[in-house]
Amino acid sequence: MSTSDRLIESAQDLLWERGYVGTSPKAIQQRAGAGQGSMYHHFTGKADLALAAIRRSAAEMRAAAEEQLSAPGSATDRISAYLRRERDVLRGCPIGRLSQDPDIVADAHLRQPVDDTFAWLRGRLAEILTDGQARGEFDHALDPDDTAATIVAVLQGGYVLARAADSADHFDTAIRGLLGLLGRAGGSAR
Amino acid sequence: MSTSDRLIESAQDLLWERGYVGTSPKAIQQRAGAGQGSMYHHFTGKADLALAAIRRSAAEMRAAAEEQLSAPGSATDRISAYLRRERDVLRGCPIGRLSQDPDIVADAHLRQPVDDTFAWLRGRLAEILTDGQARGEFDHALDPDDTAATIVAVLQGGYVLARAADSADHFDTAIRGLLGLLGRAGGSAR
DNA sequence: GTCTATATAGTGATAGAC
DNA sequence: GTCTATCACTATATAGAC
Known about the structure:
mainly alpha; elongated; Tetracycline Repressor, domain 2; transcription (chains A, B); homodimer; TetR_C (chains A, B); DNA-binding; DNA-binding (chains A, B)
C-alpha cells in the first residue's frame, strides 16, 4: 500500500474515533508511519487529507449498505436485513459522527460527502419503500420519503443512545421499536 | 450573576457549539470575561467545569421536555407536542452531541449525566406510551420501551440529518415519518 | 518522495502577587 | 477571588537538505 493510501486510511480511523477537531496531522502521520514532509507532499494540509478520507469512508458506507439493500427478497426483508446487520455500534457511524463536528459543518467542501451520503441513503430507502407499497407490503398512506428519513434517523440516533449508555443494546432496542412500527404499517397484502 | 455561573454558562454554550475536544479553557474564560486564575479558583480544571456545565444542560433539557410531556391531553397529543416543539435544530442537541465526543465517552463521570438524561427520557416516554395503550390510543402489541427508544433515536438522528444537510427541513421530515408510523399503530379506540 | 529543522500560535495548568 | 507571568507541550504548518 502506498504512503498516500496509508495516510488516508489512518485519517479515516482517527476521524471515526476522534472527529476532525480531535485529530491532529501528527497523530495521522504517526499511525501511518510517515513523516511530516510525506504528508505535506501528498496533501496540502489537514483539511485536504480529511476530505480524501471522508470521501473514501462515504464510498465504503454506501457499498456496505447497498449489499443489504440490493439483496433479493421483499422490501421488508431488505430493510430489516440492513437495519439488523452486524455493526460496530459503540464506534458510532463514521459518516454520521462528522455531522457533529463544527469544522466539518462549517466547511461546505468537507460537509458535501456527508450530505451526499445521507441523501443517497434516504433516496435508496424511499425507492424500496415505494416498491414495497406496490407489492402490498406497506400501507399506501405511508409517505416513502418521510419514512425513509425516519429509518435513517433511527439508525443515527441509535448510535447516539448506545454511546451515551456505553451499551450496544440501546441501539438494538431502538431498531426493534422501529421494526415494530413498520410491521404495523402493513398494506393490503396482510 | 456570579463569575462561577458565567463560566458555567459559557462552557455550556461552547460545549454545545464545539464539543469538549473542541473547547479550550481559554475560550471559556474569554466568553465569560474571566481570567485564568478565576477559573482555576472555582474549578479544578477543564473536566471539572465541563461536568458542571453538562449537569446544568441536562437539567435544562429535562425541564424543557417535561413541559410538553406533562401537559394535559392524550398520550398522542403530548408526544406529538414534544416532537414538534420549537427547536434550534441546526445547533443540534446539547446533550446528544456529547455522545460523539471521545473524551466524554471515555470518562465515566462526564458521560453519566448524558446517560442519565436519555434513560430518564426513554422512561418518561415509555410511561406515556403505556398510558396511551390503557386509553386505547395505541395497539397493545406495541412495546413501550422499544418504541420510546425509537422516538428518542428519531429526534437524535433528526439532528444528524439536519446538520449534515445544513437544513432543518430534514429534521421535520424524519419527525413527520415517525408520527405517520405512530398514527398507524392505533389501538382499539380508532 | 521522504527526512529533519524551525516557526508561530494555542493548550491546559501552576505560581505567586494583589 | 482575581490578576498576570510563566511553563512544558501540542497543533499546523513551512523550508530546505537528501
